[in-house]
Amino acid sequence: ITDTDVKDAIFKSAPHEAPGPNGIHCLCLRQVYYAIPTPLVKLFQAVLKTDYHPQCWREATRAIIRKPNKADYTAPEA
Question: Is position 75 within any domain?
Fold first, then answer.
């Protein structure tokens, strides 16, 4: 994983989406990247090398937005 990989992943994320369960907003990650890019890249490299992903990185918050005339929401593509 390179500096460019990390930068691209952070800056391709929508800046105004709600943060995940850990509360870290995408705009915060961008500021961290600007301030300390090398340690951030090393963090992600270590995650991949050790194959250890903190539990909070494996969690997500999802919401179902009901659509008119859709009765079945059991299938993800519904």
Answer: no
59, 20 Cβ separation under 8 angstroms: yes
Work out how many domains the chain is built from and give that number: 1
Each residue's pLDDT tens digit, 7-63: 999 999 888 888 888 888 889 999 999 999 999 999 999 999 999 988 888 888 877
Q: What are phi and psi of 3, to 5 degrees?
A: -55, -40
Domain that holds residue 21: 3-58
> How far apart are alpha carbons 53 and 3 in whole angstroms?
19
